[in-house]
TrEMBL record:
GO cellular component annotations of the record: cytosol
Family annotation (Gene3D superfamilies): YhcH/YjgK/YiaL
Taxonomic lineage of the native organism: Bacteria, Pseudomonadati, Spirochaetota, Spirochaetia, Spirochaetales
Protein name, per record: Uncharacterized protein, YhcH/YjgK/YiaL family
UniProt organism field: Sphaerochaeta pleomorpha (strain ATCC BAA-1885 / DSM 22778 / Grapes)
Domain of life: Bacteria
NCBIfam families: YhcH/YjgK/YiaL family protein
Length: 144
């Protein structure tokens, strides 16, 4: 997991080369003017969504992706996210179509993400989002 300011996103391109496409999208598009929903990029392996929440999501499970790297960019507001160890969580069956395993577990750490920051979750890293605050964010899903 990486948490940093959006101005440093380019520094992580050697680690995640597909971030170049994410950066191009950020520079070309006005995400705050987009409707909530799913969007495609020029790359067939990169898609994104715009989401918004005004109150905590109740009873949410941790999610873990096996094949996709998830890049979340906070566009407005603040969001509280929780992390857990995958070894300490109980998983439900893997949903191959959506590349996600939902997990029950206790949080081991939290992130208080703010506007202008991004979070990268690598395959195998469980996280729970939408635990509080009021936010709008772009969520990129990168598949090799």
């Amino acid at each position: 997991m990486i948490y940093d300011t959006i101005s440093n996103l380019e520094k992580y391109c050697p680690l995640v080369p597909q971030l170049k496409t994410v950066i191009t999208s950020i520079n070309k598009e006005n995400f705050t003017a987009k409707d909530i929903g799913e969007y495609k990029t020029r790359s067939k392996n990169i898609r994104y969504s715009i989401s918004h929440a005004q109150s905590p999501i109740k009873n949410s499970l941790f999610e873990m992706h096996k094949e996709e790297t998830i890049v979340q960019i906070i566009l407005e507001g603040k969001e509280l996210l929780a992390l857990t160890w995958r070894e300490h969580a109980k998983g439900l069956p893997y949903d191959k179509d959506h590349d996600v395993v939902l997990l029950e577990g206790d949080p081991t750490a939290v992130i208080h993400a703010e506007k202008g920051h991004f979070i990268i979750f690598f395959p195998g890293e469980p996280f729970k989002e939408g635990l509080g605050e009021n936010y709008t964010k772009a969520i990129f899903k990168l598949r090799d």
